[in-house]
Amino acid sequence: MTGTDATSVMTALGERAKAAAAALRMANTKTKDSALRLAASVIRREMTEILSANAMDMKTAEENGIDAALLDRLMLNSDRIDAMAEGLEQVAALPDPIGAVDNLRYRPSGIQVGHMRVPLGVIGMIYESRPNVTADAAALCLKSGNAVILRGGSEAIHSNRAIAACLRRALVDSGLTQDAVQLIDSTDRAMVGALLKSESYVDVIIPRGGRSLIERVAAESRVPVIKHLDGICHVYIDAAADPAMALAIALNAKTHRYGVCNAMETLLIHQQAAAATLTPIVRAMLDKGVEVRGCERTQALCGDLQVGTATDEDWATEYLAPVLSVRIVDDLDAAIAHIEAYASGHTESIVTADYEAGQRFLREVDSASVMWNASTRFADGFEYGLGAEIGISTDRLHVRGPVGLEGLTTQKWIVLGHGEIRS
Amino acid sequence: MTGTDATSVMTALGERAKAAAAALRMANTKTKDSALRLAASVIRREMTEILSANAMDMKTAEENGIDAALLDRLMLNSDRIDAMAEGLEQVAALPDPIGAVDNLRYRPSGIQVGHMRVPLGVIGMIYESRPNVTADAAALCLKSGNAVILRGGSEAIHSNRAIAACLRRALVDSGLTQDAVQLIDSTDRAMVGALLKSESYVDVIIPRGGRSLIERVAAESRVPVIKHLDGICHVYIDAAADPAMALAIALNAKTHRYGVCNAMETLLIHQQAAAATLTPIVRAMLDKGVEVRGCERTQALCGDLQVGTATDEDWATEYLAPVLSVRIVDDLDAAIAHIEAYASGHTESIVTADYEAGQRFLREVDSASVMWNASTRFADGFEYGLGAEIGISTDRLHVRGPVGLEGLTTQKWIVLGHGEIRS
């Protein structure tokens, strides 16, 4: 497809999405929730069709020699399809954020001023191999009153088509417009470029995927982007940390799951806490099969334990793997300075019983999630009570950290008067 | 200056701003407020110096044949300088948004999750002729814990330099870093380009000025922008409007000030309200010297009154002048459809005593401010209780409508635990 062709396809998609967004903005909660529940039942009913579409994607992927991890992400089975349908029902059960009025108060002029929560408009969602994102993202966009244009991975095109068809059928049968959910029905990369330049139609782009996708989107997009870059997360064990709590949190943060963005990548230990915590933690990590790379002091204190050498590059790396870098620091200031220099702004946690140290850490560390005596693994939309999550933002504007329904909305000012004029 | 030179100047400014932002993030309320009050007194003390710098700008502007309106915006006198100092004191008196914790609540896992309000980081402010923006913008950025890089109009460079010098002196004397406020000390346009590409240092750009400035910024910027485009504001007089209230609001919205973004540009009247409201309003507008351009029905109903012909172009024009377009519409749906087609998303108001019509208008009109029985002129940071205003956003993300201190902040998640780990 040429760039011009892609632009004209995108314009048609964009115009339909804009019209759908205007209609969806006014849809009431009951209609949106019925559509979501109906979509769940259509997906369950069409399971065979979705599975056979997925089989085509799996066959092509295998023929192309795609690796096992990606194949697993691409693969659907009846359990996964059922989980997808359940996800739609869970979103239907969440409170509707739209129309909520906050903070309405009288002003000296006599007018009442407040905020009303409203949809963002049209959301462009760019994602990679997991076909369930098609249903998950569409559900969150629909519930929050937004139209969505979906662009999934080309390896999942048949699966995504089958899932999107179920969603669109449910929309129509619920009296909503099917254009509230549109899938870019082409694997041509030019379509991504066209989507990123459609600032007249699309209000925000949310990319979900690997670093190269996110960086391409951030570099090319004329539409505002809510992006999720690396999670180089830290746990800092303060002088006043309880050693048992420090061990439990460090282990959980590193070994609960390795390939996730909220896993710990670097452990910082106050020099006064090292005697009581360093070797038990390193031993436990090694027992779990985690490779440990330490600073000089770490290596010296670990004696015979197998600890490699951490370099500057280690401090700046998101391993997403059973590898941990460990650094002994002089004090809280040094820990915060290390975090300032190397963290990606995702999630950091302090373990301490010291009120002053905890308060300072909470206030001074500039990350999307800052924790005190808890595992970094809690940085998650479900754990935070958002009910669902469309992504995790490492940006600073609009929304930071886990993004749920509210992150897909904005607020307008409302003014209630009685004939007031300005003097 | 070449682009490369501009980039290296900008890099130096950006690095200093980033360091200043990290320090300012931790500054307490008392220190920030003292710095603001001290800045006010330095500005009053240095009045003679500021006036003579401004005289240089005025002389150059007059020699360049700059028009009277721009000369008036550029001109400082003792009253205006005093108002600038008072503005700094007013910002000092506002509550500090930074560090406020919202909505901290327990989750089933045992952790407490909430939001803490924090600064955005580094703000790039691009503005035109009014030198008081130098002080106003710096004050709001400082109070909200942000470092700012200011780029004023080249015609005001001497005035801006003198004002920025006062602010920086006050910062140092209050124990803060002077780099919290930096002025781009060059009138070279290449510096604007460099600022717009400094996404590694600057978190958001706020342009304030005419349409061509805003459009250039929006098109070129790699940094997120909070922008303020046109204010094509509407008043809609519903069938159930009180005629006296309709007249008062329409007159105020149009004639209170002409050159402001929250002035009404188009008046929509329900056909059933036209008999009681149209000619009194048109007569009052003409008496005030406002040119009226109407649709066919308006012209027919206005008889001998001097009403020109409104074209499609009129509906899409922000006059910023004593010109008003008037359209008779069939009903509320037609009014909302007209607004959907032509409004710029700034401010619209309905005049009605009908509960259902008012509720629908509030819910369905998609503008930054939506009003019921009040003049559009109230769309303003002071009138809304923000205490001050750095601009008015017609964007949808992050902040919409008048932008005060809170618009210059973001939130991070905080998690308070007791050793919780994820299972």
TrEMBL record, chains A, B:
<dbReference type="InterPro" id="IPR015590">
    <property type="entry name" value="Aldehyde_DH_dom"/>
</dbReference>
<keyword id="KW-0521">NADP</keyword>
<dbReference type="GO" id="GO:0004350">
    <property type="term" value="F:glutamate-5-semialdehyde dehydrogenase activity"/>
</dbReference>
<comment type="pathway">
    <text>Amino-acid biosynthesis; L-proline biosynthesis; L-glutamate 5-semialdehyde from L-glutamate: step 2/2.</text>
</comment>
<dbReference type="InterPro" id="IPR016163">
    <property type="entry name" value="Ald_DH_C"/>
</dbReference>
<protein>
    <recommendedName>
        <fullName>Gamma-glutamyl phosphate reductase</fullName>
        <ecNumber>1.2.1.41</ecNumber>
    </recommendedName>
</protein>
<dbReference type="InterPro" id="IPR012134">
    <property type="entry name" value="Glu-5-SA_DH"/>
</dbReference>
<keyword id="KW-0641">Proline biosynthesis</keyword>
<keyword id="KW-0028">Amino-acid biosynthesis</keyword>
<dbReference type="InterPro" id="IPR016162">
    <property type="entry name" value="Ald_DH_N"/>
</dbReference>
<feature type="domain" description="Aldehyde dehydrogenase">
    <location>
        <begin position="315"/>
        <end position="379"/>
    </location>
</feature>
<comment type="similarity">
    <text>Belongs to the gamma-glutamyl phosphate reductase family.</text>
</comment>
<dbReference type="GO" id="GO:0005737">
    <property type="term" value="C:cytoplasm"/>
</dbReference>
<dbReference type="InterPro" id="IPR000965">
    <property type="entry name" value="GPR_dom"/>
</dbReference>
<dbReference type="GO" id="GO:0050661">
    <property type="term" value="F:NADP binding"/>
</dbReference>
<dbReference type="GO" id="GO:0055129">
    <property type="term" value="P:L-proline biosynthetic process"/>
</dbReference>
<keyword id="KW-0560">Oxidoreductase</keyword>
<comment type="function">
    <text>Catalyzes the NADPH-dependent reduction of L-glutamate 5-phosphate into L-glutamate 5-semialdehyde and phosphate. The product spontaneously undergoes cyclization to form 1-pyrroline-5-carboxylate.</text>
</comment>
<dbReference type="Pfam" id="PF00171">
    <property type="entry name" value="Aldedh"/>
</dbReference>
<feature type="domain" description="Aldehyde dehydrogenase">
    <location>
        <begin position="15"/>
        <end position="285"/>
    </location>
</feature>
<keyword id="KW-0963">Cytoplasm</keyword>
<dbReference type="InterPro" id="IPR016161">
    <property type="entry name" value="Ald_DH/histidinol_DH"/>
</dbReference>
